[in-house]
Amino acid sequence: MLLLVPLIAMQFTGEVNWTAADFLVMGVMLASVCVAFELALRVTRNSYYMLGAGLAAGTAFLITWSNLAVGIVGNENNPVNLIFFGIVAIAVVGALASRLQPRGMARTMLVAGIAQAATVVLALFKEAPVVAVILGVFTVMWLLSSLCFFKAGAPTLTSQAA
To answer: What are phi and psi of 76, to 5 degrees?
Structure first.
């Protein structure tokens, strides 16, 4: 259904001009987020874990989407933007390496958040402040995801008593 939005918009305005490749890439991105969330559902029904997974998948999606669409730094052809794909890769590789276990996911998202925070510092020196704010929002999303995974993996009072 989401892919119908640009298709319909293309009928009414020249501002939206998607190619078949654009639809394919967006379809793959949407499917990836859905698969990631489905995997999280299969791992646990813990609400903190689910929130952490949603934040991580959403952050990766937003970074990738904005980077492909217009570029985060400059335009989409600026090689500096490859850094942001690297941060998403940290999250994906770390998630796979941790076998989606809460503590490993917490560490992975923390590393992604720290890497993202480094881009905020770089943006403050090289780019407009609005870019630093956007990158700061991504940083907070990674760090909140890490916190959620940490809470999902923390022992509960009932498991400590046992």
So the answer is: -65, -15
Nearest to 103 by CA among 58, 61, 46, 60: 46
Q: What is the pLDDT of residues 27-81, one digit of tens each?
A: 999 999 999 889 888 888 899 999 999 999 999 999 999 999 888 888 888 888 9
Who's near 17: CB < 8 A, 6+ residues apart?
10
Q: How far is CA 7 from CA 19, 39, 75, 103, in A?
A: 10, 30, 24, 42
List, in order, residues 6 or more apart from 158 with CB less than 8 Å away: none
Domain presence at residue 159: no
Residue type for position 158: T
Residue range(s) defining the domain that contains residue 143: 4-9+18-154
Query: Is residue 161 included in any domain, yes or no?
Result: no
pTM of the model: 0.86
Quick check: is 160 in a domain?
no
Domains in the chain, number? 1
Amino acid 128: pLDDT: 76
In a domain, 32, yes or no: yes
Q: Which two tokens stand for residue 9?
A: 């918009």
